[in-house]
Amino acid sequence: MNKDSLFAKLDYTLIFIVFLLFCVSLTAIYCAPLPSKLDNSYFVLHQLIWYIIGAMFAVGVFLIDYDRFRQIGWVLYGICLALLVGLFLAKGGLPVPFAHESHGAYSWYALPGIGSVQPSEFMKIALILVLSRLIVEHNEETPNRSLRDDVRLLGKMALASLPPLAFVLIQPDLGTVLVMAATVLSMILVSGVRWRLILAILLAIILGIAALVVCYFTFPAVISLVLQQHQLDRFYGWLAPYKYSNQEGFQLINSLNAIGSGQLYGTGFGNQTMVLPESYNDFIFSVVGNAFGFFGASALIALFFLLIYRIIHAALKTHDPFGTYICTGIIGMLMFTIFENIGMTIQVMPITGIPLPFISYGGSSLLTNMMSIGLVLSIQARSRKYMFD
Length: 389
Known about the structure:
- This protein is mostly helical.
- The protein contains 14 helices and three strands.
C-alpha cells in the first residue's frame, strides 16, 4: 500500500481529538500554579517540544505496517526488559550508566541533552505487542480449545507479564504496575479464554483487595510487609486526608479544594491561586477543574470518551485479530490510566504517580501515548473492507 492511499485512510477524527488534548495540555500547564522560582513558560515550551517529537514517533509508527511489529515485538520487549534490569542493578548499588534515582525510586535513565527517560512506559507498548502475538498464535494452534488450552494461554501471558511487572514493582513504581496489570487483564477479556477462568481471576483480585483493606483496619503490621512506607503514606492520605492534613493528605485536600473552588465555570484563565504540588504533572486535572470549572472538566472527560470510542471503532473495523488485540491493550491502558488519575484527584482512587494521558507534563508518558495512537492509525488505515461488511 503506497503512502498516498495510507494518508487518505487516516482517521482524521482521532487526530483532531489528540490535537484538542494537546491544546488542553498546554493551556492547563500554563495555568498550573508553580513556586515562584519556576516558570510556566518553561514547562509549556518543553511540553510543546515533546508533543512535536511524539508526533514524529506517531508518524513513524504509522508508516510501518503494524504486522511488522508482530515480528519485532519480542525484540522490543527484550530491549525494554534489559533497561528495567539495569535499573534493578542500579538500585542494588551497581554503577549502571545513566541510571537515575528520584524520590527513592530507580525508574529513569538521565540522558545528557535529552532528559529523563522511563523504560517502564515503553514496556507498556512492548508488552501489548508480545501478548497480542501470543494470543493470536495460541488461537491459531488450538482452534478447538479445551479448558487446558485456556490455562496454557494464561500461563504464557503470565510468563511474559510477570518479569516486567516484578522489575517495575521493585523500582518501586506501583502506579505503573497497576496500569500494566489492567492492560493485561483487558487483553485476557478478549482472548477467548472461558469466562469461568476470567471470573476466577477477577474474584482473586477482589479477594486480594479485600484482604488488604481488612489488614489495614485489623492487622496494620501485615500491610507494612506488602507495601513500602511511602505507599502506606499515600494509602493513609487517601482514606483519611483531613487526619493527615499536614502530611500525607496535604495533596489530596488541596486538590479537592482546587476542583471545588472552580464551581461551574472556573476561576478563569491564569487566575489560579491554590497551593498544589505537582500541579503541572500528576494533578493537572485539578488545575483544569479549578480554571475551567465543572464544564471544562466535563469537556475534557468527554474528549477522553471520544478518544476511546475511536480506538474501539478501529478495533471493530479491522479483520485482523492481531490488530484487534493491540487496540484492546491500548484501550485498557488508557482507560485505567485516565480513571486512576482523575479518580485520585477527587478521592475516588488512592494517589499514585500516574500522569493524565496527553495532558500531564512529561516526555516518556507522552511518547508512549503518541506511539499507541500511531499504532491505532496504522491498524485502521490498513484495515481491509469486504463485500458483505
